[in-house]
Design goal:
The complex is a heterodimer of chains A (about 160) and B (about 260). Chain A has about 160 residues and is α+β, with helices and mostly antiparallel strands. Chain A is built from six helices and five strands. Classes of the chains: A alpha+beta (about 160), B alpha+beta (about 260).
Chain lengths: ~160, ~260
Amino acid sequence: MSKIAISLTVNGTPTDLLAEPREQLADLLRGGLMLTGTHVGCEHGVCGACTVEIDGVPARSCITHAGSCDGAVIRTIEGFGDDAVMAALREAFACEHALQCGYCTPGMLVAARDIVLRLPEADETRVREEMAGNLCRCTGYRGIVRAVLRVLAARRQGFQD
Amino acid sequence: MKPAPFAYARPKGWADALKLLAAGARPGAGTQSLGPLLNLRLAQPDTIADLRHLPDYAGVALAGGVLRIGAGTTHAAIEDGLVPGRVGEIMAAVACRIAYRPVRNRGTIGGSLAHADPAADWVAVLPALGATAIALGPRGERRIPTAGFVTGIFETALTADELLRAVEVPVLPAEARWGHWKFCRKVGEFSKATACVLALPGRAPRAVLAALDAPPLVIEDARALMADPVAEANRLLDGFPGLTAWRRAIAGAALRHAVEQAGAA
């Protein structure tokens, strides 16, 4: 099957590449652009490991095929280096032991950042519901939930950094 | 777990999309259901026609007491309040429990309805709201009541040359009472049993029983269900003889909870 031309902006950099239409965004990012921070788990939209930002909102890169991304603005875990909310989440994940093997962590962080920004008043029940789309096989989730709650609480108290 | 090869087409207008459909293309919107089927190779289309960029594919317009919701409107947009009024309140509460937010950001109401997974949410909720599906084919638009839209498991009343363009939902008065209950073992999973009840002043209540591995059962006059939910649920569930005991129990609970919610509001 012939390849098609795809234009993406990935982590702020405009990128033109050729892809087979059937390639999923996760594979384009990992194989085509060597952005291996995006992980591939279940490949049917359930586990959340592949979650990246597409046009400013989190989405599953394993069930978003190349053609449908043409023209999109993508941000992967590698693209949050200068983001204060993500910095706070990384620190909270470390403090709360919110990861062990780390496989789920990039997707967890992208989903968690969305929760922190979209639902500033979220309580533990809401955080657990909202994070239900990201599976972790190491931690039992308690550390992850505590980490997200820690950042929410800090922001409510006005500690922005 | 990688799709079989397919060609990709992005139609610029609806006429273009219908031509692609006539040539055998499979329509795709958010691909949150189609994507897994592609990866699992349960679907192996030659071409995917990406509808997402069609004019007026997403968005809501209010005219003549009817809300016309573009088929490409995402669950997340509905969750965030795009649909106004009492209908919007009801639909937002449903949308926020569809799958997960990253899925809702791309998944669409029309894609979900046309995909016709019996366990999905809009296939149950839209008939309860009295909604109409707007199909577009070579001869123009055709209106299909959503109560009869899903004809089987993954089967709809759309003909092979038609696309789902929009759904129309009648505006509801503020006092419309609503019940919706579904059972998922884990947040975001597909439902194992879903029930909806809509009660309007001066009208017979309408109910839907869904997610039982069959097309939704629409009960246009649910007065008997409201009067005696336990007995009537038992009678209705006799129409689903293949259900295991636990599934039947959950389906009965879904009906009772939905009736209770619609009665209490």
